Structures are given as structure tokens and as C-alpha cells.
């Protein structure tokens, strides 16, 4: 058994605290169980982010500075989606339809002033998608991370990478409700925690090991 040490290359994976009246957030429920795991010879460090604009990014930046990860994978809840969603793009806008956990509700506000309109994840998203399909895990490429805290964190992460640490791979994954949550949302799809955990392990492994993405159709018509 390989002993984990602080000198090992590491992966930073984040989940969110519960929000919008939920008692749990499936992202942190799953991500927390990966803390101190070894995946593809990389130590995994899990971090819970608050569901708050600005403070979530401040804590993410602190963790990046502290741990020097080679990969940062942020994970969030997307209630209503039925598959693992590998996010392709983050846009430079906060437009909150509900308040965050600190009572903030930015509307039509840039995530970062005078920064580019959008950033693409610098992950092998198509290879990651194929790896999940090979594992019989439902997954799609998503072309919107929303305009709430998830997009805020994804955009802020990719801006930081672009401006300061281009050697880091980074991106965002949305996951469905857990079954226990879906019980309270009539007709909402869900995914078991075991499946989510399996998916995250596959995604981390593929992101680390893949040097060049592949070209396969995974777009949408609307």
C-alpha cells in the first residue's frame, strides 16, 4: 500500500455546502470521501467551499496557493439534471436568481471586472466523457454552468489559471441530486453517491493521464 506524503503531486477537488434550503449538498457528500485518496499516483485533497459569491473564490485561491495542485476539479449540485455534466465553459457574469448563503444576490455583475467574457475548461473533456460512458455512467458535455456560484467559481478558477498558473488543469463538474434529495423534488432525477464517487475517480484519472483530447461529437442543437 502506497503511503501518502505531502511531497506527492496532488489534486484539489472541491464541493459546496448546502444551499437553497437543502440539508445536504451531494457535491460535498461525495468529494469529502475522496480526501486523502490516491488516484493515478496523486494525493487527493478535498475542500468544502461555501455557497457564497467571492468568499468561495478566496478560499479556493488560498487552497491552490497552499497545496500547489496539478489539477483542480470543482464539483457542484445541479438539481434537475440526470447525468454527470462535464462543463465546457464559464462566463464572466453573476446573475443570481436567489440569494447565496451570505445573502448576496449579484445581478448582471462580472465575476472579475475587465476580464475576458469566457474561459474554456482546460481539461480533456471528450476523453473524460468517453471514459464515463465506458464505465456505463450517464454523462454529457454541458455548455452552461449557469450564472450562480458554480459558474462564479469555475470562471474564477480558470481566470486564475490563465493569469497565474497555466500549468494547472482545471474545470467543473455538475452532479444530480442524491436519491434522498429527489424524494422532496417531485419527479426530479437523481444519482447514487456510489455512482458519483465512481465517476469522480474516473474523471480525475482521465484528467491526469490524458495529454491530448480526442475529437468526438458531443454538442447539442439547443
TrEMBL record:
CDD domains linked to this entry: Peptidase_C15 (cd00501)
Chief location of this protein within or outside the cell: cytoplasm
InterPro entries assigned: Peptidase_C15 (IPR000816), Peptidase_C15-like (IPR016125), Peptidase_C15-like_sf (IPR036440), PGP-I_bact-type (IPR029762), PGPEP1_Cys_AS (IPR033694), PGPEP1_Glu_AS (IPR033693)
Cell compartments where the protein resides: Cytoplasm
Active-site annotation: 87, 150, 174
Pfam families hit by this protein: Peptidase_C15
Coiled-coil stretches noted in the UniProt entry, renumbered to this chain: none
EC number: 3.4.19.3
One function term, GO molecular function aspect: pyroglutamyl-peptidase activity
Catalytic activity: Release of an N-terminal pyroglutamyl group from a polypeptide, the second amino acid generally not being Pro
Gene3D superfamilies noted in UniProt: Peptidase C15, pyroglutamyl peptidase I-like (3.40.630.20)
Keywords assigned by UniProt, alphabetized: Cytoplasm, Hydrolase, Protease, Thiol protease
Family: Belongs to the peptidase C15 family.
Function: Removes 5-oxoproline from various penultimate amino acid residues except L-proline.
Subunit note: Homotetramer.
Protein name (Swiss-Prot/TrEMBL): Pyrrolidone-carboxylate peptidase
Biological source species: Pseudoalteromonas prydzensis
Gene name of the record: pcp
Amino acid at each position: 500500500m502506497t503511503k501518502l506524503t505531502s511531497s506527492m503531486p496532488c489534486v484539489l477537488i472541491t464541493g459546496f455546502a448546502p444551499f437553497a434550503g437543502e440539508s445536504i449538498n451531494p457535491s460535498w457528500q461525495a468529494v469529502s470521501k475522496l480526501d486523502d485518496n490516491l488516484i493515478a499516483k496523486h494525493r487527493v485533497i478535498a475542500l468544502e467551499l461555501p455557497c457564497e459569491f467571492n468568499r468561495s473564490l478566496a478560499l479556493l485561491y488560498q487552497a491552490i496557493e497552499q497545496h500547489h495542485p496539478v489539477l483542480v476539479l470543482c464539483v457542484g449540485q445541479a438539481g434537475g439534471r440526470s447525468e454527470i455534466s462535464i462543463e465546457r465553459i464559464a462566463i464572466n457574469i453573476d446573475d443570481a436568481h436567489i440569494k447565496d448563503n451570505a445573502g448576496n444576490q449579484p445581478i448582471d455583475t462580472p465575476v472579475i471586472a475587465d476580464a475576458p467574457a469566457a474561459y474554456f475548461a482546460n481539461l480533456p473533456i471528450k476523453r473524460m466523457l468517453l471514459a464515463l460512458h465506458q464505465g456505463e455512467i450517464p454523462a454529457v458535455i454541458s455548455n452552461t454552468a449557469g450564472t450562480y456560484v458554480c459558474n462564479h467559481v469555475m470562471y474564477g478558477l480558470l481566470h486564475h489559471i490563465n493569469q497565474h498558473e497555466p500549468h494547472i488543469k482545471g474545470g467543473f463538474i455538475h452532479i444530480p441530486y442524491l436519491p434522498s434529495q429527489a424524494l422532496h423534488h417531485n419527479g426530479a432525477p437523481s444519482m447514487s453517491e456510489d455512482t458519483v464517487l465512481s465517476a469522480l475517480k474516473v474523471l480525475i484519472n482521465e484528467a491526469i493521464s490524458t495529454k491530448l483530447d480526442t475529437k468526438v461529437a458531443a454538442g447539442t442543437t439547443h
